[in-house]
Design goal:
Length: 234
Amino acid sequence: MAGGDELKLLGTWASPFALRVKLALGFKGLSYEDVEEDLKNKSDLLLSSNPVHKKVPVLIHNGKPVCESQIIVQYIDEAFAGTGPALLPSDPYERAIARFWAAYVDDKLLASWLQSFRGKTEEEKAEGLKQTLMAVENMEAAFKECSKGKPFFGGDSVGYLDVTLGALVSWMHAGEELYGFRLFDEARSPCLNAWVERFGALDVAKAVLPDAGKLVEYAKMRQAEAAAAAASNN
């Protein structure tokens, strides 16, 4: 890391959005202070650093806050262009394609996947599953387009889209245990199914991504808290 640069990450251990930033920092080989936030009692630093959304993650670089995980990852790649591998493609068109599919991961794939098990009615859950399967099909095609037959979205090495989707890998395993649904599988998405295992085996991913079993316990605790809160309001 360039001399004099101070990096502080405000996040939570289970947040896939904070994990996304941790992965980017890891692949770039950057050291940083990891500040674990309590979202039930948000710190003054978080509230002042992200006054609009009041959410994690926030990366503070030499006292200046950057918010929103995808924007933070792009910032890291640009601010530390001379450090570690580039995450975004150098070609403007390929860079635009990577950004398009990264937005699709959050806006379509993740949103519909969450709806498939958080929907308030069975109809909502069924619609979420339908949209999830369509999104998986599109992401499988995106992998083939972006990887050009190589191991990662970024080609021979991890790129921006690998980091964006890779942050969800532990939650994919936890989701399968919790709900019995495998997001990427050999039948529907063989390329992405293999990519999940390949990405998860990387040293940076193993160092950053939390244990799926721990996420299962965390999710069950959150579900119990939500159920208790709903019961007390009735």
